[in-house]
Amino acid sequence: MPILVRQVPKKNGEQSLGRSRGGFSCKIHLTVDGLGNPLRFTLSAGQRHDITQAYDLLEGLDFDRLIADRGYSAEHFVQYLLDRGIEVVIPPQPGTTQA
User: Fold this and answer.
1) pLDDT of 85
2) Digit-coded pLDDT (tens) for 1-19
3) Which residues of 66-87 are buried (b: 16+ CB within 10 A; e: fewer)?
4) pLDDT digits (tens, 9 = 90+) for 20-78
């Protein structure tokens, strides 16, 4: 069961990859198994949306259920998972209703 998570470190300096509202930052996107063991990770600039990394993080993995944070709740991504028969556990964005 992959779990998609992200961490947004707020750090200035050479290691920063992009500018966001909080200043220079980068995002670490990580796929882990049900025990929290890392399977795959990518880095992106702080201003890039999380969903840009989602497909690459899951490519080639076989699983029945996906747990992810709101950054991965885009309708096209959820539909992609449902079409593959994957149970989706992602909280809805604030102000939306969950079907």
Assistant:
1) 95
2) 555 655 555 555 445 455 5
3) bbbeebbbbeebbeebeeeebe
4) 565 667 888 889 998 889 999 888 877 777 788 889 899 999 999 999 988 888 899 99
| Pairing between β-strand 23-32 and β-strand 3-7 as defined by DSSP bridges | antiparallel
How far apart (Å, rounded) are the C-alpha atoms in residues 92 and 70? Answer: 6
Integer-rounded Cα radius of gyration of the chain: 14
Encoding tokens for residue 36? 């929290």
Token pair 């069961």 in the structure block, residue: 1
Torsion of CA 17, 21, 23, 29, to 10 degrees: -40
Measured distance CA(95)–CA(43) in Å, rounded? 29
Given a contact cutoff of 8 angstroms between Cβ atoms, the answer to whether 68 and 3 are in contact is yes
